[in-house]
Write a structure and sequence with these properties.
mainly alpha, Rossmann fold
């Protein structure tokens, strides 16, 4: 969940976990503070899937990073995420917890499909790179 920038949201999640999972030995929930890039990449690369039930996303970098690392992605069908993920991610309604739950279960129960999403995510992520982005931005400014 990142550092303290999440403020009340992070505190709310921590309180929810404490109230609903009081026995630390029986829950496997870890709430991180800031992680540097090395640890963040290792965490993502060792995940079974990356879930991103966002209500708003500016450019979709977390989804793009996860796809580029070969991790299947489950994310919201909002904002820029469909443009970033196209057909290489599984989409959910971020307002529907049960939709997220079912899509996670679907991936876990279908490892071959998870592998298909891994491969297609890597291919999709290669459509995006910083050099292309800088060139497009430069061209945009030239037209002003």
């Amino acid at each position: 969940m990142g550092g303290d920038g999440w403020g009340k949201v992070k505190k709310g999640v921590i309180n929810y976990v404490k109230e609903n999972f009081p026995n630390k030995k029986k829950n496997n929930i870890i709430i991180f503070d800031f992680l540097n890039d090395i640890y963040l990449i290792a965490l993502i690369k060792n995940a079974y899937a990356f879930t991103y039930p966002s209500f708003y996303e500016g450019c979709g970098l977390p989804v793009l990073e996860s796809m580029s690392l070969g991790i299947p992605v489950i994310c919201s069908f909002i904002s820029s995420l469909p443009e970033v993920g196209e057909k290489s991610v599984i989409y959910i309604d971020p307002h529907n917890f049960y939709d997220l739950k079912e899509k996670i279960r679907y991936l876990i129960n279908n490892p071959q499909i998870a592998n298909d999403y891994k491969r297609s995510g890597i291919v999709q992520s290669k459509k995006f790179n910083w050099n292309k982005s800088v060139l497009k931005l430069h061209n945009f400014f030239q037209q002003l």
